[in-house]
UniProtKB/TrEMBL annotation:
Residues 183-257 form the DUF3298 domain. It holds the Pfam family DUF3298. It comes from Chryseobacterium elymi. This is DUF3298 domain-containing protein.
C-alpha cells in the first residue's frame, strides 16, 4: 500500500512538473514573439568649401536621409532617385557617396575654370546644395521633400523642388493612379482653375501679380511631383516649370471634394477621407 501511494505521488509530481514546463514554454513563446521593427531615420551631411582663386570660392553642401530598417532595393533606388550610382544604402555608404560627390564637384569646377576664370572681375562664391527632408509618415505613407539650389554666375541662383510619397506597405513610390482615376485633362483643368489660390508674392507697379499672368505654359501638367494630407492633394512646381522665375515655386491645391467619385477606395479608406 505504501509503495502504491509513493508511485502515485511521484506520478503526480511528474505530471505537475510537465504542466508547469508547458506553461513556461507558452509564456516564453509569448514573451519572445517578435515585435514589428521600429522605423528609424538617420542622416548624413557634407558641407565644405574650396578657394579656386582670389576671386572665386566654391561651396558644396548636401544631406541625405538614411533608412536603416528599409530593405527593399527597389524602394531605396526610388528614394534616392536624384543620386544615381548608390550601391551601399548604409550610413557609411551614403556618407562615402556624398564625400565623393563633393570631390567631383570641386574637381570639375577647377578643371573647367581654366578657360573662363580670368573673366571674373570681382569676388564671387559659387555653390551647389541639395537636401532631403522627411515631411511625414502618416498612415504608412512616407512623404519626402527634396530641394536643390545652385549659383554659378549670372543674375541669380537657381533652385527647385521635388515631392515624393512612398507606400511603406507595398515598398513603392505612389503614383497618381493610386490616388485618383480622374482623367488627366480634367485634373489639369482643375489645376488651371486653382492656380491663383496660391499667392506668389510677385508685385509690379500696380500691386500683386497673379500667377496666371506669369504662366509660361498653356496647360498646367498634372505631374508626379505631388503630396497630400487629410484635406487636399498638392502639386509643387519649381521656378520656370510653369511660371516665370519671379513667381517662385508654386504649390497648387486640389481638394478631395474636387476629386469626389474618383478616389481609389483603398487609398480613401487608409487616409480616412470622408
Amino acid at each position: 500500500m505504501k509503495n502504491t501511494i509513493a508511485v502515485l505521488a511521484v506520478s503526480s509530481l511528474l505530471a505537475f512538473s510537465a504542466c508547469k514546463k508547458g506553461e513556461s514554454t507558452i509564456l516564453s513563446d509569448k514573451t519572445e514573439t517578435s515585435q514589428p521593427e521600429k522605423f528609424i531615420v538617420d542622416s548624413v551631411k557634407v558641407s565644405d568649401s574650396s578657394k579656386i582663386t582670389d576671386s572665386l570660392t566654391i561651396r558644396f553642401s548636401s544631406n541625405l536621409l538614411v533608412f536603416p530598417t528599409l530593405k527593399s532595393k527597389q524602394l531605396l533606388d526610388s528614394i534616392y532617385f536624384q543620386n544615381k550610382g548608390i550601391r551601399d544604402f548604409s550610413k557609411k555608404g551614403l556618407q562615402a557617396f556624398l564625400d565623393n560627390e563633393k570631390n567631383k564637384y570641386f574637381q570639375s569646377v577647377k578643371s573647367d575654370s581654366k578657360d573662363w576664370i580670368s573673366g571674373i572681375s570681382y569676388a564671387q562664391e559659387w555653390y551647389t546644395s541639395s537636401h532631403m527632408n522627411l515631411v511625414s509618415t502618416d498612415n504608412d505613407y512616407m512623404h519626402i521633400g527634396y530641394a536643390w539650389s545652385a549659383y554659378e554666375g549670372g543674375a541669380h541662383d537657381n533652385y527647385g523642388f521635388s515631392e515624393r510619397v512612398f507606400d511603406l506597405k507595398s515598398n513603392k513610390k505612389l503614383e497618381l493612379k493610386d490616388i485618383t482615376s480622374m482623367p488627366k485633362a480634367k485634373l489639369e483643368a482643375i489645376l488651371m482653375k486653382n492656380i491663383n489660390k496660391a499667392h506668389s508674392g510677385a508685385k509690379d507697379s500696380e500691386g500683386e501679380v497673379k500667377n496666371s499672368d506669369m504662366l509660361l505654359v498653356e496647360i498646367i501638367p498634372a505631374t508626379d511631383n505631388f503630396y497630400f494630407d487629410q484635406k487636399n492633394l498638392y502639386f509643387h512646381y519649381s521656378p520656370y516649370e510653369i511660371t516665370a522665375f519671379a513667381a517662385g515655386d508654386i504649390v497648387i491645391t486640389v481638394s478631395w471634394e474636387e476629386l469626389r467619385g474618383t478616389l481609389n477606395a483603398k487609398f480613401k479608406e487608409r487616409m480616412k477621407i470622408k
